[in-house]
Structures are given as C-alpha cells and as structure tokens.
C-alpha cells in the first residue's frame, strides 16, 4: 500500500480524501494557492505545498506545478478529487511517466469518456441507450442555430469537456442558441481550457439518475445502485438521494448492467459514474460518464457501506475488488443537500466573505456506513445518521475564485421519510452567518410536496420557483409553535435583563405574563404561566402550548419542545424580539406588551430606497463585458452586461424599457455587491 498520497484539489473533497487516507494509515500532502493558505484541507494534511496565485488556471490546474509538488513531497500516488485535473488525460499521462500512481481510471478511459462526443459514440457501440443529438464539433453560433433547428428545440448546448454545470445552456429558440453557444464556449474555455461545443435534444419532463460503478485492474466491474439528482439549478445539482424514489428493480438492473458494459468497453478501473436522463415512462438515455469521484458519492456510501475513496486507493494500488455484484445491498435511504455560498433571495447569485459563524449539526454515525468503519462511534437507537462533508471553518474566508459549494450535508434513515425528517432537523440546526447561503432554500425543498412525494423532474426549481426564492410561508400551526417559543424565550431574556441591571428588587413581579407576538403578518395575544421546567402559553382562543427548553439569552440556536414536538430555531436578537430561521422561513418575531403592541401599530412603515433607475451589481464579481453605451435605448430583457463570479457567467438584463444615461464600470472592473453599474432614465 502507498505510504503517502498527494491530493490535487482543495476544499471539502480534499478533506474527504484525507479522512479516508488517515483511516488507512496513509500520510497526505495538500497543495494550496495564495487564497487557500489557511484552508481546512491545508490544516488537516500531514504536509502542504504552495502552488501559486488564487486563480485555478495559475495554480490548481497547472500540471507542472502539481508535478513539482509531487517531487518535493515524494508522494507515491495522487488523488485528484473532482473538477480541476480529475478528468485530464494529460495529467494522468504525466503521472504515469513519472511512475506515480493516479487514483483514478486509465488515461485512455478519461480521454474516451471525458469527451462527450466520443463517449456517446462508444456508448452506442456498447449497447447503451443514448439521446438524439449532433455529434460533430460546432464552429460558430450560426452553425449552432442551424443544428438546433435540425434537432428541434429545446436543445442542450454543452461543453465537450464540461462538467458540474459549467459550459451548459438550454436553448428554446434561435436567439438563445446564439447566446448560449457563446456563453458555453467562454465558460468552457475558462474552466477546462477546452471550448469545444456540441448540441443534443433536451428531453422534457426528465429525471436525472446516475449509476455508480466500481472497477479494478483485473477486469472486475460492479454497480452500486443509483442516485437521483433531479433537483438542479442552472444544470447544477442541489439535492441528491439514493436510491431513486422513481426506479423499479428492473430499470435499476438494466441501467446498472449497461453502465458496467460501458465501463468494460473502455477498460475502466476506479470509481466512476454513468449519468442518464430518464423520462416519465422509465425510458433512460445516456448523458455522460464522469471518470472520477462524484460530488454526491456520500449518499451511495451511506446506503451500501462502501467507502468509495478507499476502494479507489486500493484499485490504484493494483488490488482486486473484494466484492461481487451479489454482495451489493442497498440499505435504507440517504439524502444530500449541497450548501452553497449564494444568496437565494438574490436569484442564487454567489456570495463571498468571512464565515462569522459556521456550526454544522453534530455528526452521528449509523447504518451501513457505521458498520463499514468510516465513522467512529456506536449507531444510536432509531437508526438515523448525520454526516457533513466540508472544507471550511468558522472564521474562514469564502473566496471568489472557486466553486461556491462549501459543504454537503447528508442524512441516512431506515426509509425515505426518516431520511427526510432527519435532514429537516439537521438543516434547522445548521448555523451559518457572514455570507449569503442556500440553507433556507434547501429546507423549503425538504417540505415541498413534489419532493416529499418523489414526483419531481429536473425542471423542479424552474417550475416551482419561476420568480426566484422569496422564502417560505409557514402555516398557522407552525406560527403558533414559534410564537409560543419566542414568548417564552423573551420572558427568560427579560428576567435576565432585570437581574443584570440590578434595578429591580423583585424582577419576577415586574416581568409581565401577558404578551403579543407578531410574525409573518399574524398577531397572537398570549399569557404565560411559568414553572421550574417550562411554561404554559395560553392563546386568546383558549388553546394552550407547553414550552420547554434549556435556551439561555445569547445562544444562537434554540432547541425547544413545544407540546412534545422537538424543534430547532436559529435565533438572532433584535430590538423587541428575535430574527428566527425555521424550515426555510426567515421571520422577524416581535414580542411586546399589550400596550407596546397598540403603539407599534401607529408607527409608519419604513420604505426601501428607490433603485429602479439603476443597475446594481448583484454579487461580487468581474465585469466581463458591457453590451450597451450611454444614450442607447434598451428594451425589457435586453442584455446589458456580463458579470463573472465563481467560474460562472451571469448576464444582467434590462427589467423594462429605458435609456442608458451613465455607465460606471467597464470590462475588467471588479465590483462589490450593490455597486452601481449603470443608470437609466
């Protein structure tokens, strides 16, 4: 076995590989850019080597710099993680030439499957069902329009070397085909150094389901079930689960066997994933093969008990698989939510900054993965597990240079409802401050009827949130729970305040029992009867809720029992109440005395400033180009400029007809959130 491996990556996947290597007794080497000098993966590794400036094309994807780090460290093998150089055949060949093991597939398999055009042809020859499309390279936007018309809209425009949602656009007409071709080409060039584009039919009402394969260097290959990845935004996965709530055993077997046939056709050896698009009749079509570890691999590990990183290392060491297809069993259900540094209330645009608070829920090992020994500790009764794969820490910086994903929160349960409920509770207990993040959004998804029923497609976000995410409206029962909890918490805070000030000889007499809680436009008048273990909160309709908690003022997470139901509330103190986050809702909860509540109704509402005549930068980023000039009359929907952030191009468009009167920024300028790009009349 290897004594030392180098991880040619960063962030959560580098940390993930380090954990398994440590379990196997293998030393690890991290590489890092200037921006990652204090990163978690650098702190976790046995040693770390600096490889250059922050941009990935000057550090993490420069093969010579990685090879130099290998020489310096004496590493015998390299794990590439995903992204960066993970599917770069030149990197695999360079390692082979240096007699360093690549913890991944052979260079020939990377070349064959890494190119979507070639992989589709090989898949067809191997008997794998494929999507109709144009397999040749496309020279320019006009040719892209012509081909799109021949295939028939809608079409998917893809970077041949793409992945992770980069270099990918859906076009429904000629204009979108032209624009999508150029944006895909630009993103592909920036992210992969390869701007080749191809086009295929976009299957409507699709589900995105993928098969995990595992092969060794001795001709053995198996599949480890499937993952459902249909909850996507901008073609990038947000929620994944295993198994799929849609597949039956016959379809699973057919997809698995075709995936194994494809892997064998290209001489595959390592962990890999074959992605399919599946229609409502369970017809499935090959999309691509990812010749690397997938971001969502933990859900497969959770239901199979197989540590995929360990298997990759053992395969790279020349060891045969120790399991056969008959040994693979799928136990329970697992769900993964990706935590992104992005603001769901601003169209999911990237957010950067310092993590002033980062406190994930406590990890609990249970189920097959606990038995496999990847985690330590005994499985608790009730069999639910929580796992958080992350690459950040409280006080760390989220950089504009890399992908916005900062963690993967996973839960496992004996069945799908148990895994979903465990995820709801874990999300409620996840504390993140300092940046915009998508925790409210994924919490909302976990309660959405389409998700809980399993009846979703890849159009879920587009269909259910066509105008963006604007938060969650809680029902009356949930509002009453929060009102009761907040009134009880406010009373505790008031008692503490009077004690601290020393102004009252008998503070309990001066802290009243009658309160009015206002939240989400609703008002609840309540009376509190407290005792040593909690409080009875009586509503004016005669109903009573029992509230018990060990929360103390200053704590940012309150775990509260309301009528026996355990809930977790993210708490931030504001004047006269709390900011509360619960199940995807962000609420201002004001708790006032009856007299204060009367007076509050007389206060005028503060109106937001008028920015309707300005184009504000919605995220920290770089202006790639400005499409208009001063004096131009623009129409609704017209492209005004393009901002690049976290490897994604974002086209900003006019909201209405107007005339450009001033332009404050040009190509190459770096802007902060809400900087004024241009003004109109």
Describe the model:
This protein has 681 residues and is of the alpha+beta class. Helix content is 28%, strand content 32%. It contains 19 helices and 39 strands. The protein has an eight-stranded antiparallel β-sheet with strand order 14-13-10-11-12-15-22-20. Strand 29 and strand 30 form a beta hairpin. Helix 4 runs antiparallel to helix 5, helix 7 crosses helix 8 and helix 13 runs antiparallel to helix 14. About 1% of the residues have low confidence.
Give the helices and strands, then pairings:
Elements: E1 4-7, H1 11-23, E2 27-33, H2 40-44, E3 47-52, H3 63-73, E4 77-79, H4 89-97, E5 101-102, H5 107-114, H6 116-125, E6 133-134, H7 141-151, E7 155-163, E8 166-171, H8 174-192, E9 197-201, E10 207-215, E11 221-233, E12 236-242, H9 249-265, E13 270-278, E14 284-290, H10 297-304, H11 308-316, E15 333-340, E16 342-343, E17 349-350, E18 353-354, E19 357-359, H12 367-372, E20 384-390, E21 397-398, E22 405-413, H13 416-428, E23 431-433, H14 439-447, H15 449-452, H16 460-464, H17 476-501, H18 507-510, E24 514-519, E25 522-530, E26 535-539, E27 544-549, E28 557-562, E29 565-574, E30 577-582, E31 585-592, H19 594-600, E32 614-616, E33 621-626, E34 633-634, E35 639-645, E36 648-653, E37 658-663, E38 670-671, E39 676-680
Parallel strand pairs: 1-2, 1-4, 2-3, 4-5
Antiparallel strand pairs: 6-9, 7-8, 7-9, 10-11, 10-13, 11-12, 12-15, 13-14, 15-22, 16-17, 18-21, 19-23, 20-22, 24-25, 24-31, 25-26, 26-27, 27-28, 28-29, 29-30, 30-31, 32-39, 33-35, 33-38, 34-37, 35-36, 37-39
Helix pairs in contact: 4-5, 7-8, 13-14
């Amino acid at each position: 076995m290897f004594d030392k491996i180098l991880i040619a990556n960063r962030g959560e996947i580098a940390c993930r590989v380090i954990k398994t290597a440590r379990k196997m007794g293998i030393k690890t080497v991290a590489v890092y850019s200037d921006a990652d000098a204090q990163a978690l993966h650098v702190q976790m590794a046995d040693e770390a080597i600096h490889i250059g400036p922050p941009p990935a094309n000057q550090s993490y994807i420069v093969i010579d710099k990685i090879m130099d780090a290998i020489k310096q460290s004496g590493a015998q093998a390299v794990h590439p993680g995903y992204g960066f150089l993970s599917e770069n055949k030149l990197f695999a060949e360079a390692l082979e030439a240096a007699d360093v093991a690549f913890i991944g597939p052979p260079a020939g398999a990377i070349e064959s499957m890494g190119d979507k055009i070639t992989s589709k042809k090989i898949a067809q020859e191997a008997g794998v069902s494929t999507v109709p499309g144009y397999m040749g390279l496309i020279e320019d936007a006009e040719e892209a329009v012509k081909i799109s018309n021949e295939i028939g809209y809608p079409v998917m425009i893809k970077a041949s070397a793409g992945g992770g949602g980069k270099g990918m656009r859906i076009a429904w007409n000629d204009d979108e085909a032209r624009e999508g071709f150029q944006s895909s080409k630009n993103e592909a060039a920036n992210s992969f150094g390869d701007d080749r584009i191809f086009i295929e039919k976009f299957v409507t009402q699709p589900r995105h389901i993928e098969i995990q394969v595992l092969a060794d260097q001795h001709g053995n290959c198996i599949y480890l079930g499937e993952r459902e990845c249909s909850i996507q935004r901008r073609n990038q996965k947000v929620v994944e689960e295993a198994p799929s709530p849609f597949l039956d055993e016959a379809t699973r077997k057919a997809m698995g066997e075709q995936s194994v046939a494809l892997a064998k056709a290209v001489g595959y050896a390592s962990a890999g994933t074959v992605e399919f698009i599946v229609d409502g009749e369970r017809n499935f079509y090959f999309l691509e093969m990812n010749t690397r570890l997938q971001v969502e691999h933990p859900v497969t590990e959770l239901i199979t008990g197989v540590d995929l990183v360990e298997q990759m290392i053992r395969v790279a060491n020349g060891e045969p698989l120790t399991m056969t297809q008959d040994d693979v069993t799928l136990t329970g259900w697992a769900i993964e939510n990706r935590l992104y540094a992005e603001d769901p209330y601003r169209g999911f645009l990237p957010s950067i900054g310092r993590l002033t608070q980062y406190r994930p829920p406590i990890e609990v090992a249970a189920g097959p993965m606990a038995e496999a020994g990847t985690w330590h500790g005994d499985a608790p009764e009730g069999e639910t597990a929580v796992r958080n794969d992350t690459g950040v820490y409280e006080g760390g910086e989220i950089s504009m240079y890399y992908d916005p994903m900062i963690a993967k929160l996973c839960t496992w349960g004996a069945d799908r409802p148990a895994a979903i409920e465990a995820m709801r509770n874990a999300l409620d207990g996840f504390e993140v401050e300092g940046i915009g993040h998508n925790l409210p959004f994924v919490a909302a998804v976990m309660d959405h009827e389409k998700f809980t029923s399993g009846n979703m497609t890849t159009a879920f976000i587009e269909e259910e949130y066509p105008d963006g995410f604007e938060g969650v409206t809680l029902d009356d029962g949930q509002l009453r729970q929060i009102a009761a909890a907040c009134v009880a918490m406010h009373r505790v805070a008031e008692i503490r305040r009077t004690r601290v000030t020393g102004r009252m000889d008998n503070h309990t007499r001066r802290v009243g029992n009658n309160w009015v809680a206002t939240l989400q436009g609703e008002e609840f008048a309540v009376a509190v009867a407290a005792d040593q273990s909690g409080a009875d909160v009586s509503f004016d309709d005669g109903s009573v809720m029992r509230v018990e908690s060990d929360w103390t003022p200053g704590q940012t997470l309150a775990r509260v029992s309301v009528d026996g139901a355990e809930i977790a509330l993210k708490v931030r103190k504001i004047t006269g109440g709390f900011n509360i986050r619960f199940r995807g809702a962000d609420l201002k909860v004001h708790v006032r005395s009856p007299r204060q509540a009367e007076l509050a109704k007389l206060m005028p509402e503060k109106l937001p400033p008028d920015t309707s005549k300005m184009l504000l930068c919605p995220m920290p980023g770089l202006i790639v180009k400005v499409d208009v000039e001063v004096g131009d009359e623009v129409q609704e929907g017209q492209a005004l400029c393009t901002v690049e952030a976290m490897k994604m191009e974002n086209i900003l468009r006019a909201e209405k007809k107007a005339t450009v009167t001033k332009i404050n920024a040009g190509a190459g300028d770096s802007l902060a959130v809400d900087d004024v790009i241009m003004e109109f009349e």
